[in-house]
Amino acid sequence: MSTSLTSSSDPDAFCRILASSKSLGILTGAGLSAASGIETYRGVDGQWNHTNPFEVASLRAWNENPDRVWTYSHSRRDACLRASPNAAHDALATLSLLSTRKRLLPSLTDPSKPPLYITQNIDGLCRRAIDSIMKTPEAEEMDADEKKLVHERHIEMHGSMYRVVCTQCKCIKWTEENPLAPIFANDTSTRGDEKIPIDQLPRCGGSSWSGSNRYGRCGGLLRPGVVWFGEVPENQGEIIRHLTKVDVLLVIGTSSLVHPAASYAGTVKKNGGTVAVCNLGPTQIDDHADFVFHGPCEKTIPMLFKRLGQINDAQASA
Fold this sequence. Notes:
Blueprint (H helix, E strand, L loop, with lengths): L10 H9 L4 E5 L24 H4 L2 H6 L1 H17 L4 H7 L4 H7 L11 E4 L5 H9 L10 H9 L1 E3 L2 E8 L5 E3 L47 E5 L9 H8 L4 E5 L11 H7 L3 E6 L11 E4 L2 H21 L1
Parallel strand pairs: 1-2, 1-7, 2-3, 7-8, 8-9
Antiparallel strand pairs: 4-5, 4-6
Helix pairs in contact: 1-11, 5-7, 5-11
Subcellular location: Mitochondrion
Protein name: Sirtuin
Pfam families: SIR2
């Protein structure tokens, strides 16, 4: 996006455009989870202001100090497990329901498909909010294929803290077990520069591994199932393919500094779509967005969805 435009902060104007959307896309970042107690990365008190990401979240760091990477990952994972989805997660999750889509997004070309929901977050809160919605009475009428589609349309492009990958047999496992190794049951911050022996780090088969070399229980070193700096984010082909069809992109809680996600708004704008930014503070794409709403995501998103419903209900009864 090379040219700037005058952005609007008129919620009614945006809601009218959103109501006419034929294909909605959603992109979320760390700011979405701030109200859940998850520390952001690049904000005023962000992680990367006091921690070098290349020392705890890169392939080089893993090869040189897997114990340091796991110590950092455990602390983040522990925080994620203790957190709960906030009002913004919950509002976005309601779009998983056909009844909500019909009310809020009546112009969708295919209302049977939930919006494309991309998150850069690895905290799993978006998915947990969706899982909770899938347990409500409104979701009881959905069949297995419809529920599967909901999860397929939700893309965790940077992986998940709840996924681990064996570096030996390549087994991928989803788990909320905590801690993943006995060593992390204690406060590792008191160890200082003392290294954790590699055989005490999380391993394939768990701490009870007894010498088996079977797939999924081979005893190999596990790595966090997240995308580190220098690695390629997941599902990029699928994301770009879907973005070419998106006519409204809602960018929520991200500073839009990290590529490739930072380029998604430009892709939608290039194809004639509308971009709306919802973030606590200014972002890199504010000057190029059609709508900008500054404020806490947990207040802005529910407010927009509530107003969208009111506008659509008024039009339906007119």
